[in-house]
Amino acid sequence: MDTFKITFHIKETNETIMEEACASNANQAQQMCETSLRWKGYKKEDLIVEKVEKLTNENVKRLIGKREDFALAPLAQRTEHRTSNPRVVGSNPTGGTLEKELTDERRWSRYMKDKAREYFEAFSNGHMEKLGELYAENVSLKDWVSEHEGRDAVLAANESLFATHKVDVKVNSIFGDGQTVVCEIEILLNDGSKKENLLVVDVLVFNQAGQVEEIRAYLGSSN
């Protein structure tokens, strides 16, 4: 994995913004940075890439050095730092504010929940193309009957299910924590001769590009 810094020009506001991402290549880094800016409120059509830089080890060390003391400090210590230092009241050493951090965290959580709902909608509709877009290449699936590794294997498992059953997913509740979303769902399976209702808890783990990297499904009950 390499670290990339990408400079964007925002058409609507005529501003320049720099984003960083760790990725295997520049295209993946650009996608991750665009996703980050979109959940911050920017429109995709307004993002123009001006410059893509692959950072050297020295650049990365310098960036980490600016942040590690703050990022690795206990929460109580970080809170104390914000409130006790008169020069950085309500702020952190990277220049952001506590309010902004909380807002960004909520936006990220909301974005992940929206991606989870998008996934369940595609699954309910048997939309293989959309599922292929939502799955990361290294996605893994583990449920109460089988395990699958990789996008092709997971898509094949989905296609096998859709070939024999009509599937309808109802999301009862959804909880987000960072890039992990936990969903209480009901899955109605209909093979034409009988119907089965499954109560399931799905744990979805997303990458920074908003793709599903891991699915863990736990069966609660069926009838």
Outline of the structure:
The chain has helices spanning 26-39, 57-72, 75-84, 98-125, 128-134, 151-164; strands at residues 2-10, 15-23, 47-54, 135-142, 147-149, 166-177, 180-190, 195-206, 212-222. By secondary structure, the chain is α+β, with helices and mostly antiparallel strands.
What is the topology?
Elements: E1 2-10, E2 15-23, H1 26-39, E3 47-54, H2 57-72, H3 75-84, H4 98-125, H5 128-134, E4 135-142, E5 147-149, H6 151-164, E6 166-177, E7 180-190, E8 195-206, E9 212-222
Parallel strand pairs: 4-9
Antiparallel strand pairs: 1-2, 1-3, 4-5, 6-7, 7-8, 8-9
Q: What descriptive keywords fit this protein?
A:
223 residues, alpha+beta, Ubiquitin-like (UB roll), Nuclear Transport Factor 2, Chain: A, 2 domains, 6-stranded mixed sheet, 3-stranded antiparallel sheet, 9 strands, elongated
